[in-house]
Design brief:
Elements lengths: L1 E6 L5 H11 L5 E6 L2 H7 L6 E8 L3 E2 L1 H9 L3 E9 L2 E5 L9 E5 H6 L1 H6 L4 E5 L2 H10 L4 E6 L10 E3 L9 E8 L13 E7 L8 H10 L5 E8 L7 E8 L5 H11 L4 E8 L5
Parallel strand pairs: 1-2, 1-3, 7-8, 7-9
Antiparallel strand pairs: 3-4, 3-11, 5-11, 6-9, 6-10, 12-14, 12-15, 13-14
Amino acid sequence: MKRIATLGPPGTFSARATSQYIAAQNEPYEVEYFSSIGGALKAIGGSCEIGVLPIENFSEGFIPLVLDHLVNADLVIVGEVILPIKFSLVSTSSEISEINQLFVQFVAKGQCSQFIETLGEILIVTTESNMESLDRARCAAGNSAAIVPSNSFCSGVFTIVVENIHDYKNNQTRFLVFSGREVIAEDSGERDYKTSIIVLDDNDHPGLLGEILASFSKRKINLTSIISRPTCTEFGKYHFFIDFDGHIRDSEVSGALKEIDKINKVKIIGSYPKGKVV
């Protein structure tokens, strides 16, 4: 049985996204949970054939750790899952005003920043996962609270439950399915596809980004995201991560990539079916 890596323990949004992906497959998977995104990334292509991890949130943007790992990793994107995200505050305190310590996962913290500000001057403890936040709030002495996924807890355990505390009503997170094998999903002609590439910093020159964008624009290829990340070699050096509509085997997409590759090195990290909110 194939193994699939994700951020654990069970109950995290990553675990839910993984379950959603597995349900759509024609083969079983054994899920292996990791305590950090970095640990899960390193396992893909090793102890686990594939992995499901968050890449982008509706309001907080991309997760730099995942982007940076893709520059040198031999991973390919084979799928996408888009998940609605809802958060709740839970506590065993008698009153919200009594809370003096908050456990919150580092990404969730940004998605619930407006609510966190209403709690005043309290100690904020950053965790690696939402389930870690929940467990630590259960076990902590004193007036502690946690921000956790809605429906991830038994409401009878806590005296305080505040629902829908995320900053944006339509909060969503995009997860990518990574494979350790260089396999590009075939274009079935029945689904919409997206392609992800990295334009690596190996021939920086004035107008480079404009040339890249022109290659897509003149072929009417829609870019869905573009983000730069520092190479960590010197200031002013960046890699460009680009997502766009279409499959690598589409003639227009293929033409654009060949044109860009003549002026700068391009790393293709996957053509895969677009995810839909379920």
